[in-house]
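Propose amino acids for all 119 sites.
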């Protein structure tokens, strides 16, 4: 009489472990990408606040900045951000184009915000 053996073969166990390893690797990669995206969102949000503060400050001051480029910096959420204010004339003589470009401390661009301001 032949005995019947129960259980898995070594090949079946290795295939199952390979599938689990690939799945876990993909999950860890997805978690890393999610973490990077969260940090990017925080940086862009802080850069938005920085640009808004700069442009709102110009509007509240009532003074039109001169045509040209100027640099500024700001601190939001404990991070330093580098900014560039670009002022260009428009076809309408009573208005100027304002653009605030924000970069992180390493100089990587994060955001560009544009508006029009009356002289």
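Proposal:
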């Amino acid at each position: 009489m032949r005995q019947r053996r129960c259980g898995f073969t070594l090949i079946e166990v290795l295939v199952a472990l390979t599938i689990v390893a690939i799945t876990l690797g993909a999950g860890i990669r997805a978690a890393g990408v999610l973490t990077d995206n969260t940090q990017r969102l925080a940086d862009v949000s802080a850069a938005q606040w920085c640009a808004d503060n700069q442009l709102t400050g110009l509007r509240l001051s009532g003074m039109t900045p001169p045509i040209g480029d100027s640099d500024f910096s700001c601190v939001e959420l404990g991070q330093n951000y580098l900014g560039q204010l670009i002022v260009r004339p428009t076809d309408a003589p009573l208005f100027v184009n304002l653009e605030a470009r924000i970069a992180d401390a390493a100089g990587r661009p994060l955001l560009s915000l544009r508006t029009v301001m009356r002289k």
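The chain has one domain: 10-118. The mean pLDDT is 90.
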